[in-house]
Amino acid sequence: MARLPLLLSLSCLGTGLALVGGRALLARQPALTPATATDRLEWLQHWDTDPWRRREASLLLAARSKDPQAQRQWLRGQGWGPDPLAALVLKQDALAATALDRPETALALWRQLQRRFPGDPASADALYALGGDDPDKRRQLLQRFPAHPAALAAALAAGPEPAERRRGALHLARWGARWPGAEARLRQVCKEDGPDLNAQQRGQLAEGLAELGDAEGALRCLGSSLNGLGASGRLSLGRALLAGNEQQQGQAERLLLDLVRSAPTAPEAEAAVRLLAQQGSPAAAASLARLPPRWRDSAPVLARRILEAEPTDAAALDLLRRWPLDPASRTLQWDLVRERLLAGRWRAAMALLEAIPTDQLPPPLAARQSFWIGFTQQQLGEGAAARATWEALLRRHPGGYYGWRAAVRLGQGDLQLDAGPHRPAGAAGPGGGSSWRPLASGDANLDRLWRLDQRTEAWETWRHRRGRRAPEGSRELLLEGRLRQGVGDDWTGFGLLEQASLKLDGNQCALERELERSLHPLRFEAAFRAAANQGGLPMELLLGVAKQESRFTPAVRSPVGATGLMQLMPETASELAGGPVPESVLEDPAGNAGLGSRYLANMLRQWDGDPLLAVASYNAGPGAVAGWVNPQLRSDPELWVEAIPYPETRLYVKKVLGNVWSYQQGSVPGC
């Protein structure tokens, strides 16, 4: 009998060593990813000797299945151990049991998850499920996981007692004003509970409304005093008011000036100064003169003064050399360069272009600067230097509008406007279509969730950890942009990726490559391919327009009523279809892409296949574009684009045709 404890100890030790050895073996095996074949995953789930690898295969298989019964079968027996993946298994098993109408099974799984993993983000869903009639569970959810989607959903559902509804609205204002349904709740509480709110609570609700752009709602919520509004709230309110009428813009300028003067060292002060410097009214100019000394001599204020006066190249060059990295310097540089290019003042343009070293600019601005340096060199009779500049541009920034124009100038390619396909053989193009790429966040758990195709869980984990803090810097913006794309939020995701591209420096090649891929994904391929074939167009042209028009968001609607992927006006769609087009067709990717393809084909026929005129017409209308046609369109099309009198159309043409070139080339940065 004395041997029995020893045998048990040896058995436990052997099991532990086997598990440790299994984890070491897993680390040496090829990682399982969404690209792993289904039959391979099924074999591993049944026969692999490593329990961690079997669990990873189970999660990937469950993620691929749409059948909750099959999901439960794949997940059976995988909720073991203290690893966070066990919490994820329990959560998904509970959700599948709920979908199968097995409430008792789901309840037991939620309780087990909450008991075993109280601090894991997956436990937020357990608290939400268990908190229906339990105020204590709801409070725990809001306190432990305030920014988690489950907490925001619980805050929105709070009620029916006024005090509970008010707490929910205040939570949404602080942690998730953009959560679907939050805006209506904030307005409701401001209106119905106004007399019972203190100044701080009114300020919190008003800041949430201002963040959503509802300046009038924020002011109504505040009443007669701004005392409850902190620096961040005043900045948000000022930004929202600037989008309003002339009276509201004046109110915004006074509010922003007061913010800077009362808190000149606050982080919000710099943003307020930049907003004031961008306003063109005399009142805004007067406000700049009343700023504290540290801001009166800042780059945004001096750049505004230079543009207001008869700008001298000497003053501008001094500013650009003092603050080459400041966004205001870069904006001033391009405004002045564009004026001189259109006036044919080549040497003045060159001096301004060379004032900021190209390698200190983010990639989109570096490509623009390189192209125009080459163009100016050519105008000055330095043909060999121009070719060398454009060749270097193509090596470093082969995609986008300026990559296209450099290739055309060098005789090394042009847009292909026939039906195609034109994507490089064997490539899904930048963005990879359905191909999987690592997240590379630097966080092992987040990267593992992404690798196992748990995109929603990865996004919820990131949101929980970030809390109220907005992403900062190119790396965080890229990461959140990709996570947003992963859960189907291209609208927000593309905005974040664009911000990231303007924060890169010349030494972040890996990030630049990932950004280029993420900025040009292949969405709704079947719909776009069919529409392209129907219209006799390259699919990449439709992708380029849709990315710029809607960020691939099928149900998006503009303030004037344009709808869907290609942002068609109902009247235009009816004309193209020969009769009324239901809203459901405009929101359907295939229906919208088909009508958009027909309209683009009409524009190309009208303008004899000229992509510049066709795309400009898609944005501004063919009537307006007809008045812009002149000989410069053929001799120097890049200058013709810069002379387009509508700034929106000018940018639109460059963005869309740059998208088309990037899609057709499948190019990533050459760094």
UniProtKB/TrEMBL annotation:
<dbReference type="GO" id="GO:0004553">
    <property type="term" value="F:hydrolase activity, hydrolyzing O-glycosyl compounds"/>
</dbReference>
<dbReference type="GO" id="GO:0000270">
    <property type="term" value="P:peptidoglycan metabolic process"/>
</dbReference>
<dbReference type="InterPro" id="IPR008258">
    <property type="entry name" value="Transglycosylase_SLT_dom_1"/>
</dbReference>
<dbReference type="InterPro" id="IPR023346">
    <property type="entry name" value="Lysozyme-like_dom_sf"/>
</dbReference>
<dbReference type="InterPro" id="IPR008939">
    <property type="entry name" value="Lytic_TGlycosylase_superhlx_U"/>
</dbReference>
<keyword id="KW-0732">Signal</keyword>
<dbReference type="GO" id="GO:0042597">
    <property type="term" value="C:periplasmic space"/>
</dbReference>
<dbReference type="GO" id="GO:0016020">
    <property type="term" value="C:membrane"/>
</dbReference>
<dbReference type="Pfam" id="PF01464">
    <property type="entry name" value="SLT"/>
</dbReference>
<dbReference type="GO" id="GO:0008933">
    <property type="term" value="F:peptidoglycan lytic transglycosylase activity"/>
</dbReference>
<comment type="similarity">
    <text>Belongs to the transglycosylase Slt family.</text>
</comment>
<feature type="domain" description="Transglycosylase SLT">
    <location>
        <begin position="528"/>
        <end position="632"/>
    </location>
</feature>
<protein>
    <submittedName>
        <fullName>Soluble lytic murein transglycosylase-like protein</fullName>
    </submittedName>
</protein>
<dbReference type="InterPro" id="IPR000189">
    <property type="entry name" value="Transglyc_AS"/>
</dbReference>
